[in-house]
Amino acid sequence: MIQPNHYKSLFKLGLPIVIGQLGMIILGFADTLMIGHHSTDGLAAASFVNNMFNLAIIFATGFSYGLTPIVGILFGQGEKRAVGRTLKNALWANGLLGMLLSVGMIILYLNIHRLGQPEELLPLMRPYYIVLLISLVFVMLFNAFKQFSDGITDTRTPMWILIGGNVLNILGNWVLIYGYFGLPEMGLLGAGLATLISRILMFAISMGIFFKAKRYQIYKEGFTEGLLNRKDFKELNKLGWPVGLQMGMETASFSLATIMVGWLGSIALAAHQIMLTIGQLGYMMYYGMAAAVAVRVSNFHGQKDTVGIHHSASAGFHLILLMAVSISIPLFFLRNEIGGWFTDNAEVTPLVANLIFPFIIYQFGDGMQCNYSNALRGIADVKPVMYIAFIAYFIISLPAGYLFGFVFNWGLTGIWFSFPFGLTSAGLMFYLRFRNQALH
Predict the structure, then answer these.
(1) Residue 346: Cβ within 10 Å count
(2) Three-class SS of residue 429?
(3) Which of 106, 296, 354, 385 lies at a 20 to 30 A Cα distance from 122?
């Protein structure tokens, strides 16, 4: 029987992370609402571009997760100067990966016209794409500071920075999309500029707090005195790449599905974007709690406490399932109204209502894969997650999307019915791997 203290500890550690993630979700809702009410074409263009960048950003976030267990172990051992040195190496690792990802996104930009998207959307996509491209490195650098804070159990600082940055982004959207205070009406480009400004400031504030706050003094000394070194850099890459690839492949399955949705036209893309925005509600909350699971499991792993490892992972899954039920019930009853919140287009709303059903079905699998992939990260068993993700998302989910959407001719709803297959198979495989490895 799981002791109540496991739930309490996970809740206390995970709540600030979940709140920070909720801020990002609210931002996604605000972006989609504001862009959708400004222009249906703008909403469709945002759907494509955001999904391309989500692939890079989720991969980058997964890579940055490699820092958390390293910092957590050093913090538990009282090696605070070493934590500062590791952060220094992590900033370099994340910055270099950010530049590498930027090169890949530039190549994609140069070929955006070859991806079968509606021609009328390309003039909206291109400037928005460029602005988001500039912001990518700042996301990576902020991630390093966030994972450092999470690793030393200071989850509240990044929470407040995320909330502040997202509020600024929403206000920037309002001013720049619609053209208030004498500024020109920029539409989708305005949303991109607001995102760029907020991301730069979030990184700058994180860096300022690290170097100025007294509670970080010992870490700052380690940062200043520490050297860039192969050992830290290698360890960060060893843990970061598998997690980044696992999360990247999951996101890639949604991004590649978005390309297939684009073959169905602008209306389908708009409905798809609305549901992806809603889908982030569950995914980001689940990953917030799952990040706490990774920290707790890593603590018990260091103590060789097998019972504590299993109980923490199980408690985390129970909390995530509770979140899934809390999200699914109201969405089911509001399914016929949701589309109208984001756009005035009468064709989009019924499409969104149809997508609620596959969305609810895949919440179990999404919660399971979030929880147990992070539990595996907690016991530093990260390499197999890449292979599991490849099987689940590329061998199962994507072919199923094409089969249901185009061979069976179920259209957009068919593509969405492939997601439960991919996410649930990933969750089951992660769980079986964790159950096997955590016993040894």
Answers:
(1) 9
(2) helix
(3) 354
